[in-house]
Amino acid sequence: MTDAVQYINGHWLAGEGEPFASLDPAKNEEIWHGAAAGPEQVEAAIAAARRAAPDWAGRPVDARLAIAKRYAELLNEHKDALARTIARETGKPQWETLTEVAAMVGKVGISEKAYFERTGTVENPMPGARAYVRHKPHGVVAVFGPYNFPGHLPNGHIVPALIAGNTVVFKPSELTPLVAQEMVRLWEQAGLPAGVLNLVQGEVATGKALAAHPGIDGLFFTGSSRTGNLLHSQFSCQPGKILALEMGGNNPLVVTRVEEVDAAVHTIIQSAFITSGQRCTCARRLLLPQGEAGDRILARLIEVTKAIRVGRYDADPQPFMGSMISEKAAKAMVAAQAHLLALGGESLLMLKHLQAGTGLVSPGIIEVSAIRDLPDEEYFGPLLQVIRYTELPAALDIANRTRYGLSAGLLSDSQDDWDYFFRHIRAGIVNWNKPITGASSAAPFGGIGDSGNHRASAYYAADYCAYPVASVEDDRVTMPASLSPGLQF
Ligand SMILES: NC(=O)C1=CN([C@@H]2O[C@H](COP(=O)(O)OP(=O)(O)OC[C@H]3O[C@@H](n4cnc5c(N)ncnc54)[C@H](O)[C@@H]3O)[C@@H](O)[C@H]2O)C=CC1
Ligand SMILES: O=C(O)CCC(=O)N[C@@H](CCC(=O)O)C(=O)O
Q: According to the annotation, is 277 in a ligand binding site?
């Protein structure tokens, strides 16, 4: 293991700040340690990005794309190793981390298409002149990543930012420094010039130093609503800086009439328990109709969920659910469940911490219909809250009872129910008879309310990576055909 964990101006350096470590949460083993970037190193990273900016932005987009494409090739060549690192550092099963790396590879082609489609150059007809819309990069942008997709989600900011001509200072989650390091090494190998992408590792102090620095032109954040809200207030009265926030959700999944009970249960499980419930798009609240049809789905859901295989990321056969990110996160889910039980919830399947020292938990299902003031919290783990409803309008009223608005779904065989649901639900990702996780990178990705600040990511990330410039141009200055009233020449 090397001490050189910071990448600043093309050099790998030891951190000058507080030491911290990264654990394999399934095996309770340290897999990485290093020292955080100190404030002067954060400063140096921003200065390096600033120096590199004019040359990088001044290159033709094809030159920037050539490096991004080489990076995608390298990702593909190293996909097994990177997927294994993601699995070790997050606890996610290897079948799933391979899909994460595949999404990272695919991001380059999608971002290229989005760049030209959403932020390319357009010439509009105009009598006696030429009118253009072009786009320019913001300059130096900070990228903050979460732990749940430590490769794919920061990659979803970094790739379009670099293609658009920005330079980047990347602050990954302190829980996943090793993934960040491997990712940045691939950019380095791809031939990215010094200073274009800088890596500052560290805990909250490093994040604060970067976010508060006057030298950044923007900040692209994926993480919790709590941190996103802090950043939003920190950025107030700085209208010149671009802030893109992708945050959490308290996502509802509503079921009405369905013929195929097993298909509905499968979709519920994919929505609620994939990644051990650690996706911002995961279903947190399942709304089932009262009566026999709802009872049948619930009984089957409990039966199948009980049988979900939970285990280590490298187990053979593979588990559906791996470890949560940490023992602390597992304990927080046990505490969240206890809180809901104390408020009047009824456990239908207990979420259990399976092994001390690890983040391994079993999935839980809790009936919360009787809780009068159900907390509008994102419990970021595999605990599904069940609410029984009478009529679809009442279900929609409950579904929209949240300050968030990221993803939502309907399971129903009825076109009318879907039309009603789509019209009334408030969320940025709204699916019918499909899981509400697994959003496509080829579509915009973002939510309303406390889930974001109307800067959708994925396909629309191109929009926050560049600003539009409108120009009217002619080769020579000429007199107009007619003068404005009151002017004489
Ligand atoms: N909408 C979306 O696209 C997604 C949202 N998320 C959300 O992310 C959360 C899980 O990720 P976490 O890593 O726990 O998020 P987090 O908010 O704790 O951390 C995200 C990043 O912000 C940094 N940070 C934390 N406090 C800071 C502060 N005061 N100032 C500056 N930087 C600070 C962290 O070091 C990390 O790099 C969940 O709430 C989940 O819903 C996760 C994935 C996707
Ligand atoms: O950003 C993209 O390219 C698409 C969005 C995406 O991949 N969403 C995933 C992850 C969401 C999360 O982080 O929690 C999904 O919808 O499952």
A: no
What the block records as the tokens of 163 is 């293609």
- pLDDT tens column, 384-432: 999 999 999 999 999 999 999 999 999 999 999 999 999 999 999 999 9
The verdict on the CB of residue 174 being under 6 Å from ligand 1 is yes
Tens of pLDDT along 165-219?
999 999 999 999 999 999 999 999 999 999 999 999 999 999 999 999 999 999 9
Contact in structure between 33 and 9 (CB atoms under 8 Å): no
Helix (H) or strand (E) holding 244: strand 242-246
| ipTM score for this prediction | 0.93
Q: Which two tokens stand for residue 213?
A: 């620095």
Q: Annotated catalytic, 465?
A: no
Interacting residues of 16 by C-beta distance below 8 A, sequence separation 6+? 35, 37, 38, 40, 41
Supply the DSSP string of 348-370, one letter for each residue. EE---B-STTS--B--EEEE-TT
Q: Which ligand is nearest to the CA of 442?
A: 2
Cβ–ligand 2 contact at 159 (below 6 Å): no
Instruction: Tell if the pTM clears 0.95, that is, is over it.
Output: yes
Nearest CA to ligand 1 atom 39: 224
- Mind listing the domains of the chain with CATH numbers? 4-247+452-472 (3.40.605.10), 252-432 (3.40.309.10)
Measuring CA to CA, how many Å separate 220 from each of 187, 285, 453?
19, 28, 11
Q: Cα–Cα distance between 417 and 412 in angstroms, integer?
A: 7
How far apart CA 33 and CA 361 sit, in angstroms, is 26
